[in-house]
Design brief:
Layout: E1 5-12, E2 25-30, H1 36-44, E3 61-67, E4 77-81, H2 88-108, E5 112-120, H3 127-138, E6 143-148, H4 155-169, E7 174-176, H5 185-197
Length: about 200
Amino acid sequence: MQRVYSKFLLSAVSPERFPLPTMPEIAFLGRSNVGKSSLLNALLGSKQAHVSSTPGRTRAINFFSITDSPERQQPQMYFADLPGYGYAKLSKSISAEWPKFIEPYLADRPTLALCFCLVDSNIPPQKSDAQLIHFLRSYNRRFLVVGTKADRLSGNARVKAQADLRKGLAVEDLLLCSSKTGAGLKEVWSAIYKAAEE
């Protein structure tokens, strides 16, 4: 896997605060306890995203600049870490924030190249995940569903989980990965580079 260098860029809670749309952007979305920060840190090889024991800590869109060399002045792409959804205590306040900055980002951002919809591969397909996929489809957004925490599944359970998620979320393409073991990260990076180049 190619070494990448990442740097926290900014947090935005309104479209006016988004970085200038000059680079391909890769968005990471998922339920509050899906392991989004762990996956981001595993991809970046450093602790950039804050991993919290309390779900729903990310309340803004956090942007990170990504390069393949520390000397490179211009980033090659941005990663966008979006607030988690579906956590009971916070879901109302997060729902209220969607129209303010999350929806405009997903609907209107011209440089958004790919959305990763992260789902927990250990639980059945969730209604909130299906709603997110429906939303992205309605705006013709390119997305890929990634099942996290796959290290907790044995071979047969992994095959079954993959089939259940494909069927329940009505998707063809679905990757399973693990932040702990690194399984599937190479495939995630392949999808990122492909989307960024196109």
